[in-house]
Amino acid sequence: LLVSKDLGKHLLEVEDLLQKHGLLEADISAQTERVQALNAAALKFSELEGYQPCDPQIICNRVNHVQTCLEELEELAAKRRKELEDSRQLWTFFQEMEEAEAWIREKEKILAAKTCGRDLSSVLTLTTKHKTMLGELGNRRALLHQTMKKGEKILAKKSFGPAGIQEKMREVCLRWKKLEEVTGLHQQRLEDALNFFQFSAETDDLVAWLQDTYRIVSSDDFGHDDYSTQVTPLLRPKRARRNCSEAELGSLSGGSRRVGCLYGFCEGMTSLFRNIHNIAASGEVAEVAVLRTQWLQDALAVYRMFSEVHACEVWVDEKEQWLEKMEVPEELDEVEVVQHRW
User: Fold this and answer.
1) 2 φ, ψ to 5°?
2) Which of 159, 213, 219, 250 suits 188 as a labelling partner, its CA being 20 to 30 A distant?
3) Domains of the chain, with CATH numbers?
4) What distance in Å separates the CA atoms of residue 221 and residue 340, rounded to the nearest whole number?
5) Which of 156, 145, 160, 162 is nearest to 97 (CA)?
6) Mean pLDDT by 10 residues, the chain (342 residues)
7) What is the per-residue DSSP string for 153-178?
């Protein structure tokens, strides 16, 4: 049993052999106590004085032989345990490497099936999941590093097929490197998609703002008097500074269209920028804003002139009524007062 060369062909078999070897070691330990007791009893016969049932030298030789056999048995047991533990270390290494490969294959399938989302909400959700995966990747990297160290220790012993270990380590390292590259590319795609959808949301806001602004500046409501004209929205040119210039919109359109094409959003981007250019690129909103400001100022000037004219009319009416009702007093003092007012 102790000189057997069967060291197991997989981890479970090695564990079973180690359990059996443990039972054998326990049996050897029990027999060691029995042998030592028998040897001690035998040596007493070599120390007898007078009658000698056997030659004392023969007894000593036999005791020494049994002791030597027992020590050799213990050495064989220790050697076999070391071989079995080395075998367990080897198959543990291979099992951990297989688990690492299985994990890598699983993540490769997940990354191959992942999209980059169809809107801002889905991209944010995928980005959160990807961050969780990056955390798992870091933990798995640490475990793989430990397994690689085990493989290097096994190679240093040169007791178990180092060629197979080296090939396995090389294969797993290459797959791991490829996984990290794919993970990095997917992260970049998510970041590009996030930037794209954020830009899309901003341009949607801009289009809505431009449409609302155009509705205001193209209104024909100039008020009906001084007050209503002053409270009418006056969209001065500085209020339109949110407008992008045609060159800036062209640059944004080109860059975001390139990102959009990567994810199948080219049609949406084309429509989006057509809306923006139709409203803002030609400067129509700013031009109409300037014209409306001038029209409102002109209307305000007219209404202010009407207000002043009305005040003059009221004043003239008051004076006409006073003149029509004025009578010449009969008393001198009263005449002087009226004359002074006149």
Assistant:
1) -80, -25
2) 250
3) 1-89 (1.20.58.60), 194-311 (1.20.58.60)
4) 50
5) 145
6) 79 86 86 84 72 75 85 89 85 90 90 82 88 90 89 76 77 92 90 88 82 75 69 50 48 51 53 59 67 77 86 91 83 84 79
7) HHHHHT-S-HHHHHHHHHHHHHHHHH
Q: How far apart (Å, rounded) are the C-alpha atoms in residues 280 and 210?
A: 7
- For residue 166, what are its two tokens? 């080296």
Phi/psi at 18 (5° precision): -65, -40
d(C-alpha 335, C-alpha 342), whole Å: 10
Which residue matches tokens 């209020």? 239
Phi, psi of 9 (to 5 degrees): -110, 0
d(CA 52, CA 307): 154
> In angstroms, rounded to a whole number, what is the distance separating the alpha carbons of residues 110 and 101?
14
Q: How far is CA 154 from CA 63, 92, 96, 146, 176, in A?
A: 41, 11, 14, 13, 21
